[in-house]
Design a protein that fits this description.
The complex is a heterodimer. By secondary structure, chain A is mainly beta. Chain A has no helices and eleven strands. In chain A, strands 2, 5, 6, 9, 10 and 11 form a six-stranded mixed sheet that branches. In chain B, the strands form two sheets. In chain B, strands 2, 4, 5, 6, 9, 10 and 11 form a seven-stranded mixed sheet that branches. In chain B, a hairpin with a 5-residue loop joins strand 7 and strand 8. Helices cover 0% and strands 51% of the residues of chain B. Chain B has no helices and eleven strands. Classes of the chains: A mainly beta, B mainly beta. Chain A binds chain B through residues 4, 6, 9, 32, 34, 36, 43-46, 49, 51, 86, 90, 92-103, and chain B through 4, 31, 33, 35, 40-45, 48, 50, 56, 58, 90, 92, 94, 96-104, 106-109.
């Protein structure tokens, strides 16, 4: 079964501390993995995807097929990073459907 | 460029009432989706459409119906609302599937309360 698991409901760190939001997935093939972010009072938007292998707003995520993980990392958290983060998976079903994790609220304290 | 627009933004329904949520996109996207967001459960797919005139069930379709008569619009209907349908509903669209085409663009959400 396809599944995305984000084990932490809430992650609270101080400004300048490193951040790692965990994401594990279950999928039999080679999925596409994404991180979406929802800032307060804003719509959900794409943060980054594994195929781009780029850094967005200082965040990076590496797909580890052996551990079936796609953890989101940032070396130095900023207060404006406070938001809800969702890890999502798209299988190869030519429908574009996304399977989302439960979401992790990141709180960056001053 | 409005992107994906949902109407209404908020609604309170009584149990048993019906309503329709409207989603409109101006990006000429083929694919459209309705998700519901509940605390601790993330977003779950209700129904989706891979093109005008097509619809399909997602993960949690019971109690909902959809229609895609025009490419730019995707309607979600609740025939007889129940308290379990209290949620935030998100519409999304995407240009295609695979690689760069898979990015989903979301509406601002509709907060529905059924009392």
């Amino acid at each position: 079964a396809q599944r995305v698991t984000q084990p932490e409901k809430l992650l609270s760190v101080f400004k300048g501390a490193p951040v790692e939001l965990k994401c594990n997935y279950s999928y039999s093939g080679s999925p596409e993995l994404f991180w979406y972010v929802q800032y307060s009072r804003q719509r959900l938007q794409l943060l980054l995807r594994h195929i781009s292998r780029e850094s967005i707003k200082g965040f990076t995520a590496d797909l580890n097929k052996g551990e079936t993980s796609f953890h989101l990392k940032k070396p130095f958290a900023q207060e404006e990073d406070s938001a809800m983060y969702y890890c999502a998976l798209s299988g190869h079903s030519n429908t574009g459907k996304l399977i989302f994790g439960q979401g992790t609220t990141l709180q960056v304290k001053p | 460029n409005a992107g994906v627009t949902q109407t209404p933004k908020f609604r309170v329904l009584k149990t048993g009432q019906s309503m329709t949520l409207l989603c409109a996109q101006d990006m000429n996207h083929e694919y459209m989706y309705w998700y519901r967001q509940d605390p601790g459960m993330g977003l779950r797919l209700i129904h989706y459409s891979v093109g005008e005139g097509t619809t399909a069930k997602g993960e949690v379709p019971d109690g909902y119906n959809v229609s895609r008569l025009k490419k730019q619009n995707f309607l979600l209907g609740l025939e007889s609302a129940a308290p379990s349908q209290t949620s935030v509903y998100f519409c999304a669209s995407s240009q295609g599937t695979g690689g760069w085409w898979t990015e989903a663009f979301f509406g601002q959400g509709t907060r529905l309360t059924v009392v």
